[in-house]
Amino acid sequence: MTDLRMTRRTFLKATGALGTVAAVGVGGRRLLQSQPLAKALAAQAEEVKIIPTYCHGCAATAVNCAVLVHVKDGKMVRIEGNPDAGNNWGVGSTSLCAKAHTAVQYEYSPNRILYPMKRTGAKGEGKFVRITWEEAMSTIVSKLKEAKEKYGPESYCHLVSEFYPPRDQVARRFLNLYGTPNYCECCLCHGPRYLAATVTIGFCSESTDDWNNSKLIVNWGSNCENSAVNQGQPHALLNAIANGVKYVDIRPMMDPLASKADQWIPIRPGTDCALALAILNVIIGEGLYDADFVRDWCYGFDRLAEHVKQYTPEWAAPITGIPADVIANLAREMATTKPMVIKTGNGVGDQQRDGTSAMAAICLIEAITGNLDVPGGNYAGDNMPSMIPLRNFMVETLLDRLPSDAYDKLLAPSYPRFLQKMPQVISPVGFHTPQSASYKVLEAVLTGKPYTPRVISAQQTSVLSQLRNPKMVSEALKKVDFFFVMDQYWSPAVDYADIVLPACSLYEHGHNSFFLGVKNRPDGTWIGMRNKVVEPMGESRSDWEFWLDLGARMGFAADMWGGDIERFMQEQLEPAGIKLEDLRNSPRGIFVKRTEPLPPREYRRYAQLFKNLPHGKVQCYNELIGGKPDADETGTLPYMPEYKGPPEGIAQTPDLAKEYPLIFSDVHAYRLDQHSSYTGLPYLRELQPYPWVKINPETAKKYGIGNGEWMKVESPHGWVKMVAEYFEGIPPDVLMSKRGWWQKCDELGLPGYSCLDGGSEVNVLYNGDREKFDKCSCQMAKQTLVRISKL
Amino acid sequence: MKRQYGFYVELERCIKCWSCEVACKAWKGIDAGTVSLRRVIEITSGEFPAVKRTFLSMSCMHCEKPACEAVCPTGAISKRPEDGVVVVDQTKCIGCRYCFFACPFGVPQYDKTMQKCDMCLDRLAEGKEPACVATCPTRALHFGTMEELSKIAQEKVAKRLAGSTQPSVLVSK
Amino acid sequence: MTEPLSKSQVLEILQSRASTYSFLSRVYREELTPALLAELVQQMAGEATDEAESEGYRTLREYAAKFNLQDLESEATDLAAEYAALFLNMSEHPVFPFESVYTSPERLLMQEARDQVVAEYREEGLDRTAEFREPEDHLAIELEFMAYLCERAAEAVEAGDRVAAAKYLEKQRNFLQKHLLVWLPEFCQDLQRAAGKGFYKGVAHITEEYLATEDETIAELLGAL
């Protein structure tokens, strides 16, 4: 600071004069007021309250680990697991993952957006001024009305992350009332796999209930020590291992659970379809399949048998990087060790060019080996009626209110249109229908094909980090007529918005749809309330409230609970005869004991499981989707699983591999963050301070890259900078990384990294050409070829 | 000694999720970028593809014969007779680090004074387990008296962690 | 050796200080309305420029000189956009006008500093208004508190109550040393950097400069009682 050359007196006089002017404009103090109870409040300050609610750690994707939050004088101070709920392994569990313990850092991060904003300046300039909620909502309403009138309701598209209850329920209802089918799916997780399994074997089970009966558990592309730490799966797997189950792990990298496997099979990223087909080849070729099951419950087996003859282990070996004899032995083991279950995850099926075929082939392995819905096999789940019947598993979305041509108006079906029109096949309550693919919707802003989206909204997603080709995404957001975002923090995509709405934190609202908070157990059903722990800061509101408010303002109040969130919540509890107030006043939740003893576990429920499939059987030759138009409607879907491989790969594009010799992929989920969220929280960031890429030491040394050193990673589509982490548990020609590094961490003095070229966003590296997407569920490959150098 | 509390770490159940490490810091209000009283350590050996990864969650061992207590010049470190928990009296600690050098496991960490695990005495007083044990999603961490832990660990052929200070820690596998 | 201040001088100074704190509080509290901005600009432009002046005043005067009164709406909008970018987190590198962020090791809201200032406010029978739902160690509130104490001190002086006046001045000194001076110098540096130029840079300087004089001023006032 330079010397104050003015005299103190003169200085004071000048500032005082400014103050006088200011006082005229203001009309009195507004922030502090006389508070008669102030001294009494001071005395209360030491008291600690314990408030039960649900954790923020998986964002609101709603794993919903029940927690107990300690509050002192209106301030969150600590968090613990709630033993009453039945988290993880059951009642009594207080376990939580690392993310949960950042609750205080999460809540009190100073980076929050607390007020509605509107753009001033050019799109993408990032210049905003504060406005009232009234103005924000009026603007949105008028834009939506205008778009509907001028371009049709389908011109409005809503983007979000994979599974987000406010979208899937209240937003879905709003979209249906408004008349747009363009509820957008990112097509990055779970949905694609779920669909592939459903059209092949009629169900997609994630049940671990029967694992203790298994003799062989094959973890194939599943990352549950990262994505589901406290959801029961790692615990169940470890119990099964302790019980003597044989455990085989098929993943590119030796993740923690893979390090405990009897056999770790390092498969090349994106080649799971080839492996699955080769396994089918061996099982069928060597006659190791369950002939009875095949005869009674499989349709088209002979055609499948003929089809897979070409997919020998010798064919698959150079593609997968797995020796032919290992493939053959694995196939034999999977066929002859009974019972056998395959635990699949994002790594197989959700982000691959042939993901649908990969997942279908894997399901067929389970099917023809007689492992569907058998004890210790791919068990379709306990039939355990809930003792707390809710209004709906999901809130009714009023699908029937969509215009009759809504499905035809879908901008970019995220799975085939004809299937979307068959909700009874895909999902009993149709919550996954209709839907468009987020990436293609954004492309349409630029191409105008088949038509131009006019209004786009984003909620609980960091679009620029989520999708491939962030540059395209940024251009689309910049170009679209009207873009509004609801979020807790600034993220790079926010700069492109016209209106920004402040979302409150997950501890600042008590809104939820109850099915998420219900823990159904053999002894009964427990339900807990999501409670508001602290008051929302600034003018932030919950995502739920936003949709109800918007609905009411658009004239849908009668169908949106009059805009009253309490009514919305109460309605769900009605069938259970529980009052919202009673639930609120039951800090330990409400537990309803099972009145009827559970029937013995049922298995082999094939008539029921396959009832929506053609012929009521497993589709070895798939007549449900085969020959039908694909999602793009430029071609047809295959009758049987077909191999394609990654758009860029050592075996797939050998010429390219001369220039870009290494395979690059990412883990998708990681246990220290929720994708690109929470990387800024100090407790988590100190455990992964830099954008990391796991690299085999031998490879790194070849390029002169030391452990912990910055390196350049370049694919044919772009380049990023990352820090090398030496790891022996990865093949020399593979690199594995993680997306989502735009958040900074001031506390540790660490920056955020750009989502564009030259930053650290892995999505820059991948292929964004829709021709190279999976044609069934629009999966976008997260595998490519790269070259590396020291930075 | 009335009883000796200890930890039993089932190595084969640890998945290096770091929940114990973060739970401890959060419960005790330890700032990021300073110290961690419980750390998850990995021991990797071998070369691709024959790689072995072992994960170990480690905190103070609350040894029977704590080397830290023996060398502390101010008497800040003491072992409680009622439960064997080794504690640092922050009012007496001068941060000289002798305890760190003496400890065969390098447990005490310097942050103005010496910091280390105290088995969450505040939680023990309420009949609760330490925060790390309470949070472990795979139940790889156990807490109890050495006697109780020996019974649980029998099946797994767990052994007391080696060391002349006699750490109150059993490790399986 | 300067002469001790007279009663009217003491009052004048207290009045100016209250006014100054109110001004600064107002500026940090929220965006400036076009009307207020126009008035302030005219005030800033009004003073003579040939005297030696502070960095803060120079910066404000430069801002005022470039200000286009004809396009007040546009100027006010630009300034409001800067306010949002700086203080409402609408940019990649905002500044955080909360004491806890500066004094807690993890740079979080609602830490010890907030608890301490809440205790100070409550001791005076004050609490945050219900409408302002941000933590109580927001700069605007801390500054408003200082203005409040100036006014209480002035009342006491008017009434001839030396003991009360001294009490309020001591409270101010304490609040200054335990709170404002602990974090504001760094905050002002951050704001100067983030603002780059213009109004908020000027205000950052003024804030820093003003606070640097407070210790001496309070001592002088106490001496005069």
**Class of secondary structure makeup of chain B:** alpha+beta
Number of domains as seen in the coordinates of chain B: 1
Number of E strands of chain A: 28
Radius of gyration of chain A: 27 Å
CATH class of the largest domain in chain A: Alpha Beta
- Give the helix level of chain B as a range of percent: 10-25%
- Protein structure class of chain A: alpha/beta
Quick structural summary:
By secondary structure, chain A is of the alpha/beta class.
Describe the structure in your own words:
- The complex is a heterotrimer of chains A (about 800), B (about 170) and C (about 220).
- By secondary structure, chain A is of the alpha/beta class.
- Helices cover about 30% and strands about 15% of the residues of chain A.
- In chain A, the strands form seven sheets. In chain A, strands 7-6-18-17-16-8 form a six-stranded mixed sheet, covered by helices on one side.
- In chain B, the strands form four sheets. Chain B has a four-stranded mixed sheet with strand order 8-1-10-9.
- The mean pLDDT of chain B is about 95.
- The two termini of chain B are about 30 Å apart.
- Chain B has one domain (about 5-170): Alpha-Beta Plaits (2-Layer Sandwich), CATH 3.30.70.20.
- By secondary structure, chain C is mainly alpha-helical.
- Chain C has a single domain, classed as Orthogonal Bundle (TorD-like).
- Chain C has helices at about 5-30, 35-45, 55-65, 70-85, 100-105, 110-125, 140-160, 160-195, 200-225; one strand at about 125-130.
- In chain C, helix 3 (about 55-65) crosses helix 9 (about 200-225) and helix 8 packs antiparallel against helix 9 (about 200-225).
- The radius of gyration of chain C is 18 Å and the shape is globular.
- The two termini of chain C are about 15 Å apart.
- The mean pLDDT of chain C is about 90.
- Classes of the chains: A alpha/beta (about 800), B alpha+beta (about 170), C mainly alpha (about 220).
- Chains in contact: A-B, A-C, B-C.
- Chains A and C meet through helix 1, strand 1, helix 2, helix 3 and strand 7 of A and helix 1, helix 2, helix 4, helix 6 and strand 1 of C.
- Strand 1 of chain A pairs antiparallel with strand 1 of chain C.
